[in-house]
Design a protein that fits this description.
heterodimer, A: 187 residues, B: alpha+beta, 4-stranded antiparallel beta sheet, binds protoporphyrin IX containing FE
Chain lengths: 187, 677
């Protein structure tokens, strides 16, 4: 299980797999850049690393992650760019971060990706045109349903009025009383 | 040889299903004992035939008989035996075979359990299950035939989809899901049987309640198991992606849950007849729709869908069932009309109606979101995505509303209540709920939805505890026993009711775990050199080394990481990447370190191939995730309790109601003493 063997086998394998080897190889640069960033902090003081990171950078990271979580990974099934570890997603995440760093708003970053990939890239449809239906219909259904239920409840409680004993005591219908007696006898 | 056995068995099942359909329905109308018996034996026969087909396929898989089409598609000599055995459900034809076999098994079980019953519904139900079988066995005989001959016989095959051979849970999750899906055919068959026979009282509901709860429990376990599987396999640190396939299992679950509740209104008050029939028919349609969605390829693209034959056939069958059901309901509408009557709006009945409203609105929303991309594409050719941001936005409020109702509904008595009693019932739970919300706030939660969730969860938990306390107390008084004995007695005598409450408790646990893990998850992705340490929350993660292992069916590259918890060594974790010959992308296997408080979740993202000197790892701290699985187990336990035979159930039809009213009697016994709370 030597590291060397791991490396050789992995390389053989990536070559054997063919096109997808691109994934592994292209991941080098970005891995490298992260590595150099990380290397700036001395290893021994790793515990204090979080104290060393710039709060502004962290805020940018968080915002980038938020924006990227609304973008669809173009090569995976139903994953967002943040979740996916596909090469393309990682590049997109870097682009998001760079654009935000350059002063673009999240909306502008989204618009950029829409212009490149189409609206499909957004995991939540924009609220315009036919898309309004996906937002409006559930609310409408709930409201209509609520009024129907209310109407029915009113109708049904109205229908029962005559049957309610005047004293309003919690009554049991005759059949309930019979069950009750049976149950009590059993115990 | 196996090809032949399989094909003949399926043809036999098809004939048996035809016989069951005809004799069941004709026998149901004519009440001729010969026909009724014929329907029963045909149903048994279908089961034997499908079992033969099932066994033939398993033998073919396990002996690597590549002359069988399905084996040539999903088998390989290198796949471990366990995954070979379960590769039955790794692809289209095999999973339909599995579906069909479970359907046949449910049919035979229904026929067997009711063999002495002279209910008019039984032959009709057997006939309807035979009719559903006709469709599935027909698929197997034609367009989805797994037993086709392959010639020349290949020496080896590609093996199952790598994602499906990467975790042992794959042996559990699909069977549970299928047992749930197909189990819901039973109440559907009885509902159609009730419509056909005109016997539209509560009998079909009583006869199927335990089937429904059991199927519902399987479906629940299947869904939670699926979440667990995707958490352990997919490596993105989440458990629910609102993927259409996941939604496909969630949709019938929602309507089945609504149905479990609304039938109680009909059992008690004889109301909501049409509604209950429609709910279970809708549930069955969603089951078919879910099978269709996951199996037709429509999700990948509309074009893949129309090229295959399976999709359109499925759609036609769904449409057929829908039309036939509507016609039946319209035909029987005169007998379905039951004048509704309620004593008060503040009652359990009306809470069930609200419960149904929210469950159905939830179903509608998830269905709309899932199919919306298809709708838009059909309307104007645009491609849009509807993903987690949308579903979370709509489902959190609905889920929270349902949670709240779950506290109110069970605590309200049937029929009506008085303001004083209301106050007495809800004052303690409200206080507990508020305390839970405040506790959340004090611990630093500032987002609205989690706070609301904690408050309602506290409220619901308190009502559940209160229900148990009341039951135990009343039982102690009636039977003059000690508290633990009384608890045991209410659990066994009144298992339906308390099973339901335990299910609710499990749901509370799941919802709180969802809120916590959704809100407090944090993560970090770093490239580490050997010996380098990174810090995440309480955890330190140090990269030790890379390793590689060649296994027969795949090649694994993994990293060993030393874990420190608050500075103390806490073992090692080994996330890995698996390379399968039939997969373009490596399939990651994350490493998870679980405690009751939180999970530490590591995914290997990339590594240095030349020397193994550095590795990129994503580390996630996922709070409360184990509680999702624990909650799922509580749900399962509660459901098992609820389906246990009622004690002393010599009188199957009334026993449920009698025993349910026993607790009512307990409440009554307690009533005059006006226990101060
Ligand atoms: C996700 C939410 C829910 C789930 C999974 C769930 C599940 C269940 C299950 C499995 C049962 C047992 C049914 C049986 O044994 O036949 C049950 C019973 C019950 N549920 Fe729910 N439920 C949920 C929400 C609600 C809500 C919102 C209400 C409010 C009206 C409610 C009220 C009840 C009542 C009153 C019972 C009956 C207990 C008895 O037999 O007396 N549930 N529930």
């Amino acid at each position: 299980m030597s590291r060397f063997r791991a490396g050789v086998l992995a390389l053989l394998l990536t070559c054997a797999i063919g096109p997808s080897s691109a994934t592994a190889q292209e991941s080098e640069p970005s891995a490298e850049t992260t590595a150099t960033q990380e290397a700036e902090a001395p290893t021994e003081e790793a515990d204090d690393r979080s104290a060393l990171t710039d709060p502004e950078e962290e805020a940018l990271d968080a915002l980038a992650a938020e924006v990227a979580s609304g973008l669809r990974c173009p090569v995976c099934r139903n994953q967002s760019v943040v979740e996916s570890n596909a090469e393309l997603s990682r590049e997109m995440q870097a682009v998001v971060r760079d654009r935000l760093a350059a002063g673009e708003t999240p909306e502008e970053v989204e618009a950029y990706f829409v212009s490149r990939y189409g609206e499909w890239i957004l995991l939540q449809p924009q609220a315009r045109g036919i898309n309004l239906l996906v937002y409006g219909l559930p609310a409408l259904a709930l409201i209509v349903g609520f009024f129907i239920a209310r109407k029915l409840l009113h109708k049904w409680t109205g229908a029962a009025d005559g049957a309610v004993p005047a004293d309003g005591s919690p009554d049991l219908a005759a059949e309930d009383e019979q069950w009750l007696r049976e149950a009590l006898r059993e115990s | 040889m196996l090809n032949l056995i399989g094909s003949v068995s399926i043809a036999a099942a098809l004939l048996g299903a035809l016989a069951a359909t005809v004799t069941g329905i004709v026998g149901g109308y004519t009440r001729k004992p010969v026909l009724i018996r014929a329907a029963r034996y045909s149903t048994y026969f279908v089961f034997f035939a499908m079992s033969a087909a099932f066994i033939a396929m398993e033998v073919a898989l396990l002996t690597h008989d590549f002359s069988v089409k399905y084996v040539a598609r999903v088998g390989s000599l290198e796949t471990p035996t366990y995954y070979t055995a379960i590769s039955l459900w790794s692809s289209l034809e095999g999973s339909i075979l599995f579906w069909g076999w479970i359907l046949a098994a449910y049919g035979a079980l229904v026929a067997f359990v009711n063999r002495k019953s002279d209910s008019r519904l039984i032959p009709f139900a057997e006939g309807v299950m035979g009719f559903v079988g006709l469709f599935f066995y027909g698929l197997l005989a034609g367009p989805a035939n797994p037993f086709g001959e392959v010639f020349p016989v290949p020496a080896n095959g590609p093996g199952p989809n790598p994602l499906l051979q990467n975790h042992p849970l794959m042996g559990l999750h699909p069977p549970m899901l299928y047992l749930g899906y197909v189990g819901l055919t039973v109440p559907f068959a009885f509902a159609i049987g009730a419509l056909l026979s005109g016997k539209l009282d509560e009998e079909w509901i009583r006869a199927t309640r335990r089937w429904t709860v059991a199927a519902w429990a399987f479906l629940s376990v299947g869904i939670v198991g699926g979440a667990w599987w995707s958490y352990e396999v997919l490596g993105w640190g989440g458990y629910w992606a609102w993927d259409p396939v996941e939604n496909a299992s969630f949709l019938p679950w929602l309507t089945a849950t609504a149905f479990l509740h609304s039938v109680m209104v009909q059992e008690r008050r004889g109301m909501l007849k049409t509604w209950n029939l429609s709910l279970i028919i809708g549930t069955f349609l969603l089951v078919l729709f879910g099978t269709f969605l996951t199996r037709s390829g429509i999700l990948d693209s509309v074009h893949a869908f129309t090229e295959g034959m399976i999709g359109p056939i499925f759609l036609a069958f769904i449409a057929l069932i829908m039309v036939l059901s509507l016609v039946l309901i319209a035909w029987r509408s005169d007998r379905l009309h039951a004048p509704g009557s309620l004593d008060a709006v503040v009652s359990r009945e009306s809470m069930f109606i609200l419960n149904n409203l929210f469950f159905v609105a939830f179903t509608f929303t998830v269905l709309l979101g899932t199919t919306f991309p298809l709708i838009v594409e059909a309307v104007n050719g645009n491609r849009v995505s509807v993903g987690p941001p949308y579903f979370n936005m709509v489902s959190i409020p609905l889920g929270v509303l349902l949670l709240f109702l779950m506290g109110i509904g069970p605590a309200l008595p049937w029929r009506r209540t008085s303001p004083e009693k209301l106050k007495r019932t809800f004052i303690v739970p409200s206080a507990v709920g508020l305390a839970a919300g405040l506790l959340g706030f004090a611990l630093g939660t500032r987002s609205v939805w989690p706070l609301v969730t904690f408050t309602f969860a506290g409220f619901v938990s308190a009502t559940i505890v209160e229900e148990f306390r009341k039951g135990v107390k009343a039982r102690m008084r009636i039977a003059n026993v000690s508290a633990p004995v009384a608890l045991g007695q209410i659990l066994t005598r009144n298992n339906r009711r308390y099973g339901g409450y335990i299910v609710h408790a499990g749901i509370v646990v799941i919802i709180v775990a969802l809120a916590l893990s959704g809100t407090y998850r944090f993560e970090r992705e770093v490239t580490l050199r050997q010996g380098e340490l990174m810090q995440l929350g309480d955890y330190g993660v140090m990269f030790d080394e890379l390793w590689a292992e060649e296994q027969p069916q795949r090649f694994v590259v993994g990293g060993t990481f030393s874990i420190f918890h608050r500075g103390d060594p806490a073992g090692t974790m080994q996330p890995s990447m698996n390379y399968y010959p039939n997969s373009q992308q490596p399939i990651g296997t994350p490493a998870v370190r679980s405690t009751l408080k939180e999970d530490l979740y590591l995914t290997l993202m990339a590594f240095d191939e030349a020397q193994g000197s550095h590795a990129t790892v994503r580390a996630i701290v996922n709070p409360a995730v184990p509680w999702l699985w624990i909650g799922g187990m509580i749900v399962a336990l509660g459901a098992i309790l609820a389906v246990m035979p009622q004690r002393g159930s010599g009188r199957p039809a009334v026993s449920a109601t009698v025993i349910a009213s026993e607790e009512e009697s307990a409440e009554l016994v307690e009533e005059p003493t006006a226990v101060p709370v």
